[in-house]
Amino acid sequence: MTGDVRFKELCLAAHDPQRVARFWAEVLGLEARPHPRPGVVGLWRDDGPVLWVNPADDDKVEKNRVHPDLLVTSTERLVELGARAVAEHEGWTVMADPEGNELCAFPAPEPPRPGDPPALLFALCVDSAEPELLAAWWAERTGADVGPGPDRAPRWLHAVPGLGGVIWKFVRVDDERRSENRLHWDVEADVEVLVAAGATVARRPDDEIDWTVLHDPQGNVFCAFDPA
How far is Cα 216 from Cα 228, in angstroms, rounded to an integer? Predict the structure, then answer.
């Protein structure tokens, strides 16, 4: 079945959720709101939550396999807010938030307007040794359009339901996975349909959660909520 999954929000694990939430709220121009679950901070736009920052007992110790791409007015402004530059590339800068979570900063094509936030999320990137296969799997689930990456391989998803104009990029990286992604996504979907398509269940709803934790065919964790 095509198009049975809708993107919901992003979730980021943080040792200090308040600090990390403040950074991302300032960077993306979002409103930080507390959540009934202890330690959780939601970052909202007027039409709903964009990012949940969840408490984690452990510190980040390795490169994230999921990261955002941002259009930025100035990398210096991100540094003032608590980021640091990690590596310079032709056309973009790899940076890290206050807990070391990677992001890629690309120059905004136009000057900022009064009131614009320092950055705009324009892509979500997922590392994969076989990005074409993973892009095809998620395209089939969401009904998104598959487009080429810079190498012309079909691994970028456009018009993902729930993602607005954000591109979902699957990036060719051979790094071995050693831990769960600290940044993951939530979807609205029928869990059994996902399982039939190749996802695996890590945790069912219980006394603590009312959603299902799954892994996609390449091990990326995501959470599924019943469709509204």
Answer: 22
CB neighbour class for 200 (10 Å; exposed up to 12, middle 13-18, buried from 19)? exposed
What backbone phi and psi angles, to 5 degrees, belong to 158?
A: -120, 155
Alpha-carbon span 153 to 63, nearest angstrom = 24
Could you give the number of structural domains in the chain?
A: 1
The C-alpha atoms of residue 224 and residue 104 are separated, in whole angstroms, by 27
Residues pairing with 53 in the sheet: 12, 41
pTM for this entry: 0.94
Concatenate the DSSP letters of all residues of 31-81 into one string: EEEE-SSTT-EEEEETTEEEEEEEE-SSPP-S--SEEEEEEES-HHHHHHH
Tokens of 68: 């955002």
Q: Are 17 and 54 spatial neighbours (Cβ–Cβ below 8 Å)?
A: yes
Of the candidates 162, 68, 55, the residue with the CA atom closest to the CA atom of residue 119: 68
At residue 2, does pLDDT exceed 70? no
CA distance 149 to 146: 10
163 is in which domain, residue-wise?
5-225
Strand partners, 221: 215
What are the tens digits of pLDDT across the range 125-181? 999 999 999 999 999 999 999 999 999 999 999 999 999 999 999 999 988 777 889
Domain containing 194 — which CATH number?
3.10.180.10
